[in-house]
Amino acid sequence: MKLYDELAEWWPLFSAPADYEEEAAFFARVLTDASTPAPRTVLELGSGGGNNAFHLKSKFEMTLVDLSPQMLAVSRALNPECEHREGDMRTLNLGRAFDAVFVHDAIMYMTSVADLDAAIRTAYQHCRAGGVALFVPDCVKENFVAKTRHGGHDGDGRSLRYLEWTFDPDPADTTYRTDFAIVLRDRRGDTRIVHDSHIEGLFPRAEWMRLLREAGFEPRTLTDHWGREIFVAKSPG
Ligand SMILES: C[S@@+](CC[C@H](N)C(=O)[O-])C[C@H]1O[C@@H](n2cnc3c(N)ncnc32)[C@H](O)[C@@H]1O
């Protein structure tokens, strides 16, 4: 995906830390309410440019893991006080457990049941007994809606705007497709357009619950303020 590779340095103009303030406050409340005592250490899988972590780090000691070294570099610049590790959420083994594990939109890149299962098991393995894992998929099968939206920001003399267009070419499989048309304006005012196509995972709620239970979690779902169905999974104490 170009967005997390050759375009990673543009990430703060694609998705700015300020956009995440309200969401991150909500995630912090969910994590805090779900376990006693409240979590101190949090592992984030697929932490990307570190926009959630930027807000969460004042409440928790964050360890940030991402597949992309370029995205980790963006996050390190924003969150120099956090531990950063390169790794794949399907195979990661840090050899230690955290009070909580958080997986935001990066979970959408699990496109098969085997991948989703592996990521859930990684979360379980890194979650202490009595701890909690929070999974925040953009959608589950039941509430997927094909949509178009746009966004982007100005900054450091450069600007970015994008159009995001989702659709599900084959409702019988476990994926859908998101196409991005990204317009980049450099400091001279010249623009170029990049097309990036992402395949994302789409699973029924019952499949999520089954995988979470089979991994060892005690899961429940919650509908958040943004209409997403999210999964709060306790590791038995
Ligand atoms: C939309 S970005 C995450 C942004 C993040 N929510 C934030 O707060 O900045 C998605 C990230 O998922 C990462 N990713 C995709 N597949 C992954 C995998 N298997 N393991 C770890 N990270 C992965 C990508 O490298 C990318 O940085």
Describe this entry's structure for a reader.
This protein is an alpha/beta fold and 237 residues long. The chain is built from six helices and twelve strands. It has a seven-stranded mixed sheet with strand order 3-2-1-4-5-12-11, with helices on both faces. Strands 6, 7, 8, 9 and 10 form a five-stranded antiparallel sheet that branches. The relative contact order is 0.16. The model has no long low-confidence stretch (mean pLDDT 97). S-adenosylmethionine is lined by residues 4, 20, 45-52, 66-68, 71, 88-90, 104-106, 109.
Strand order of the largest sheet: 3-2-1-4-5-12-11
Mean pLDDT: 97
Taking all Cα atoms into account, the compactness measure Rg is 17 Å
Number of helices: 6
Unique bound compounds: S-adenosylmethionine
- Shape estimate: globular
Q: Quick one: biggest sheet?
A: 7 strands, mixed
Helix content: 10-25%
List the quaternary state of the chains: single chain
Please summarize what this structure is.
The chain is an alpha/beta fold and 237 residues long. The chain has helices at residues 11-14, 21-34, 51-56, 69-78, 113-125, 205-215; strands spanning 41-45, 61-66, 83-86, 98-103, 127-135, 148-151, 154-155, 158-167, 175-185, 191-201, 218-223, 229-234. The protein has six helices and twelve strands.
